[in-house]
Specification:
Blueprint lengths: L2 H14 L4 H11 L12 H8 L9 E5 L7 H7 L5 E6 L2 H10 L5 E5 L5 H7 L5 E6 L10 H12 E11 L4 H5 L5 E7 L6 E7 L5
Parallel strand pairs: 1-2, 1-4, 2-3, 4-5
Antiparallel strand pairs: 5-7, 6-7
Length: 207
Amino acid sequence: MNTSTTRDTATRTRRASLPTPWGMFFRGFLKHPVMVGSVIPSSDRLIASMLAPVDWAKCKVFVEYGPGVGTFCRPILEKMAPDARLIAIDTNPDFIGYLDATILDSRFTAVEGSAADVAQILADLGLDGADYVLSGLPFSTLPSGVGARIATATAQVMQPGGAFLVYQYSPRVRDFIAPHFARIDHRMVWWNVPPAQLYWAWSDKPA
């Protein structure tokens, strides 16, 4: 028997048993609605707009909060340098398991945990900070105090010149990030469903 063929067949069978990205995303929304910002994954236009300011040549560590089914993970990996790292943090073990099963890239690490613990998560991976952090977490509906802790923790791990990239469906997120970032760029993406608020909060810490 051809061992390689048997292994490939088994892999295809396991992957075939996984739900579709939309099905997985909808299931996650139903189970944890306060942690998932929308029942519909982000549009391609939102993704392109959100990632446009990233300096990929200088990006060595990219962190994403609430990656869901990897809607942003794959475009990020396509743009990242061969020696860069993408760390995806999510409290939902179903999403983490799905990402581990569907994204087979040595630069990618999925971590089950809270974004508020980003400093410890990075330290455990031997990393001392992040060049960019992306979040689609619904700050306005998170449990009391969690949004503020995430914003504080993010500011602490940002490398000089990096940015906290945030897409939201409520402008209230600015109240969470403004105390930590003096320079915040903003735009709307009207063609997303629902229309999204995009923020780029820049780290001006000295090098």
